Target: Acyl-CoA carboxylase subunit beta
Amino acid sequence: MELRVNTAATDQEAQAIAKALASHFGEEVELYPKRGDELLATAAPDESAIPADASEAAAEALEAATGDGGTENAASSGDGLGPTDREERLREEIDDILEGGPEKYRDRLSEQGKLFVRDRLDLWFGENGLQFEDGKFANFDSWHPSGREGEAESGDRLPADGLITGAAEFEGRDVHFMANDFTVKAGSMAEKGVEKFLRMQQRALKTGRPVLYLMDSSGGRIDQQTGFFANREGIGKYYYNHSMLSGRVPQICVLYGPCIAGAAYTPVFADFTVMVRDMSAMAIASPRMVEMVTGEDIDLDELGGPDVHARHSGSADLIAEDEEHARELVAKLIGYLPDNADEKPPQTEGRAPERSPAGIDSVVPQAPNRGYDMFDVIERVVDADSVLELRPEYGSEIITAFARIDGRPVGIVANQPKQRAGAIFPDAAEKAAQFIWTCDAYDVPLLYLCDTPGFMAGSGVEKEGILEQGKRMIYATSSATVPKQSVVVRKAYGAGIYAMSGPAYDPESVLGLPSGEIAIMGPEAAINAVYANKLAAIDDPEERAEKERELREEYREDIDVHRMASEVVIDEIVPPSELRDELEARFAFYETVEKDLPDKKHGTIL
Model:
């Protein structure tokens, strides 16, 4: 009988195992390593008993060899059968595939500051987190010596066709994943890899589980485009599937290198995109192609590096400092999201705020034009260490962030008075609209913290589409069916109160702090608009200034939050130190609220 054991067994353990099995099965036993033909030990059933000092070691080694501690598995239920040379050859082929592309390209990864793709998967999922892989043998016949076409030329290794797909456990959650192997033709995509990508997406639609895209791709293989570019089931189907998955399951993309042309669409179609500094970039065309088309001489980082997409395009939600940081960010991000649109976001144990709520009123200035940091309010309302801000450098006069209140995930949309007085510019409106829309898709309740003079005016913002982007923000707020709480922290002027889910926008509550004001415009602008001629007729400067002060105070009495509460425009004025408790109670009470939209195919505002 031939049996195979773990090669970690010592000579003494191997001999003890052979003796034990020969005695058990009543026939001669030969032990070989799991991989290889070297004879480790042999024993016949009439040999002496196992030495006492080897019995414990033999039992431990036997358990390691069989995988379950029993002889039945090792001996294939006693029939003496075990792995054949055919299986060994298969294992050797798999080991070769796992090595990735040509060695010279693997050696360059450390110079680029990034991990080999399979080491990256170990970082993300741990030793046992990768549950299975699909398509290891994709395109095998074209490059491997065992394949139909024989061994390819040096440098043309195509293991897994350069794309790894499968399922894994990440932070206790089952997820689908894909990952480019940059050692295989710079992570480029071709027919078999595209097929794997599409199958992974389609399976995610069936399972309702999140998708992680670990991107490091130079785009499609131009010299192999036949069969995958324009086909019904080709690379173009990626974005159709992205669209079908959008709002159904969370899609999170991390960029580890240059993602050009078609590869750049996956990150922008994903719900959330993380770029790694000094490593990743994305652009519709490479710098060389840009120079050919436009004559512009530009490097890749200037064209589409992290700073470009964090500050200017808004395509990057988060910027990681390195590979480990990217994983940390996604681990935190996914904690706010459900597996799919049919489930509730995961709740955790509640924690007290990082700063005392008692300080809120001191943080908010009474003067409507004085700046302050809205995070000084947020940190006194939400659970400690629970804030994850998205796109902080893009449209920075609005804050979009996930956080928790008593362990319950919420999406925060807050004006930032320290940035351009909290006025809403086109990029901020776009950012807010997309965030609101995403929170609504995944059933994350919304908290609006309003302190804005309204949408910005002027020829510059008109050219940038302030009306179009403002429309989208108001549309997103109007269409959101998740529970919404709106807090008038200080000024709520103009259409800003509409965009920030004011009374007309079906919030579950509109709360005011004693510093709050709601008006068409601020006192200074209103007095100038209504009484400009009357004030100009007063010749005495001191008399004119006094009259202006009187008019301003009269105007402020009409827009004061107390008047709004008296007229039942808002639901309640809340002592600032009790705001956290008030929000905690209201989010809990309205957790199961259901809202219906009018029966229609979909709206026309994007």
The chain is about 40% helix and 15% strand. Residues 405 and 542 are 51 Å apart (CA to CA). The longest helix spans residues 541-559. Residues 50-55, 68-77 have pLDDT under 50 and may be disordered.
